[in-house]
Amino acid sequence: MSYAPNTDADRAAMLRTVGVESIDDLFVDIPVQHRDPVLDLPPALPEIDVIRHLGQLGALNATSDDLPSFLGAGFYRHFVPALVDQQLLRSEWYTAYTPYQPEMAQGTLQAMYEFQSLVCDLTGMDVSNASLYDGASALAEAILLCRGLTRRPRVVIAETVHPAYRDVAATYTSALDVDLQVVPATSRDGTSVRPDNEPLVEAIDDRTSCVVIQRPDFLGMVVDADPIVQAARRHGARVVVVVGDPVSLGLLVPPGDLGADIVVGELRSLAGPPAYGGPGAGMFAVRSQLIRRVPGRIAGRTVDLEGKDAFVLTLQTREQHIRRERATSNITTNQALVILGATISLSALGRRGLREIAEQSLTAAHQAAEALASAGAVVATDAPYFNEFAVHAPEGAAARLDRLRSEGSVLAGVDLGCVSSRFDDLILVAATELTTASDVEALAAAWARTR
Prior knowledge:
- With 451 residues, the protein is of the alpha/beta class.
- It contains 14 helices and 15 strands.
């Protein structure tokens, strides 16, 4: 626990410098009755006792390091090479100078450039920016780009897009002339859920600026995007694809090859494990004709006066740098440290390593599904899936998860009721290359015991 003390003499010197006699004089603009409210707190503790108490509270948490975990829903446990953390601990990375002055920030700019190149390679797109805050804000920015480009108000977004992404997009667009239409993209047949593109296709019309789909979608299914892309083309709408798990791009056809105009997603899983909050990193890649509408920053490579490679910020499209009426977004920065971790990880793994991780994740998920079926569960995903699938819970997902949680032996999955009440009997189960055979056995045994 870090602590930077100020002595009484330090405080007196600071007060003299700003021209007041006491600390209370700094708060004269706040009415007296609102200063120093009475807080219902226990007596103060010595520092060592505080540390001990916080440790006891932290020990109450059951994490994916303590129990077999099948949690996913956008944040996944993937193998991250040890060299990633070792490199990120180097002081030149987390104290690197702002890239506005390229002569002072060649390392930071080159890292951005390498990241952008890797994202384009992964997604099959032409241009990537240097990242956005997270996957959700990347989707919101993609919607704003399409709205400004087409000057059409309507956005068709599949219900199977991550619900948090949809919520952020709704918040972003709530004060704008944007008609955000969330459309069902599945049908139910008893316990099974299958993709259904027809509602999305029918919802796209000449007022639609873009259609948003996720692949793999939030239910884990890998959906055929072609009917949606074709419908969008007929009506002059753009196609935004959310990548459910970036590791899936080690196996699946890149969104650019499917006809996407914009690809967004969350890259945190490539840089480190899931955490209680903390930074993410939003991927944002587009076709070349949209380059001048991309929010955030794009780093580029050129040569200096001596003919040596040099890196610069090539495009910055916010009003701080260009005329306000031409600005595409007010977003001011990128998640440089997280994307650096993702860049190091992808560089270390290479094409073959990423594909192997993807294959192992696919295998682990299907082994988990088979084990659950043997334990009496009904796998409800009626479509190809990558590393996540839905399982039917007759008594309701929340009730089954409560029983599994109270047993305390496994973190079984996520209640899909967060997507829609139509799915409140479904549990989303995720597996990755870090899922072991004993993890799968523990999940199946826990499911059998709680039937």
